[in-house]
Amino acid sequence: MGALFEGVKEMMKSLPWKTWLVIFVIGVLFGWFVLGWGIAPVKWVNAAPQHLEPSWRADYLRMVIESFTANGNVELARVRYQGLGPEADKVLQQVEQDPGYLNPADIARFKAVVVAPMAAGGGASATQTGAAAAKSPFGWLGLCLVILVGLLALGAILFLGKKMASKGQGQTAREAVQPLIAEGGPAPISSYRTTYTLGDDYFDESFSIDTASGEFLGEAGLSISEATEGQPKYVKAFEVWLFDKADIRTETAILCTPEAYQDEETRQRLEAKGAVMVASPGQKLILETEKLQLEAHIVECEFDTGPDGQYFQRLTVEFRVYQRLATDGGSTAHEEGGLSA
Length: 341
Fold this sequence. Notes:
3 domains; disordered C terminus; 41% helix; alpha+beta; five-stranded antiparallel β-sheet; five-stranded mixed β-sheet; 10 strands
C-alpha cells in the first residue's frame, strides 16, 4: 500500500499545472452535467409554496383564502401568503381573475385584511424581501464567471507553486538530442547527446535505434538509478542501458559518484543492476549485445557535496551505437579511459 501511495505521489508531482487544470475542468463538467443532471439530479424535498408550478401556486392561494375565511386568523394567513415569495402579488391577481370555487367577496376581504397592511407597512415585508432575494442570484452568467475566476486562480496557484519549487534548484539543462559525427572508423547507426542538470528530478532519456531504412533495432538511454527523496533529488548514480530486440535482455551499466562507489552498501546495491564505475570526464563506457554496441562518452561531469553526501551537479553523455555484424560470445559491459575507483 505504501509503494502504491508513493507511486501516486510521484505521478502527481510529475504532472504539469496545465494537465491539472484540464483535469479540474473535466471534473467540474462531469460533476455538473453527468452527475448533477443525469445520474444523481437534485430532488426537491419540503419545497416552499413559491417553488410550485404556477397553476399549483394559484390552487395553494385559493386554499389559503378559504382557510382564512373559515378561521379568520390573520397572522396565519399572512405567513402562508408570504410563502409564495416574490410571486405572491402576481398569484393573487391570477386568483382574482379566476376565483374558481371561491366567493369574490372573500378574496377582496383577504386582500384588504391580510395583504394591504403588509404593503402599507413601509417596512421590509416578506414578499418585498423575497423579491429582492430573487434578484440577487447571478444566474448562469454569474456561475460561469465564478468558474472562470476559479480556474484562473487555480492556474495561478499551480504556476506560482511550480516556480517557487524550482527556485534555487538550478535550471534543467537537458539539451536537445542531436546527432553526432563519428570520429573516424565506421559510422554509428545512431548518435545522441543528452545533459542532466541538478533539479531535473524526472530525468529519463531514451533513444530509438533504427537503421537507415527505418528498421527498429532497439533502444538506449540514460536514467536516474540512485537519488535522495525530496526536491530537488540529489542523484548519486545513473543507469546507462542498451536494449537489443535480437537479444534476450537489456545490458546496463552504472555511473556513480566516487563517494557512492566507495560506500560498500551502496555499491553492492548498484551492482545488482549492472557493472558499477565512477563517472569522470573523458571516460568511455561500452555496452555490447548480440547485434549492437553502445559507446557512451562522458563529455562533462560535475559533482557537489551536500548534507546527504556527494551528488551529480551536471552530467553530459554522448551515445554512439554501432551494429555488430557477427556475434562473438554474448553481452558485455566495460569501460575505457576512466577509473572504477
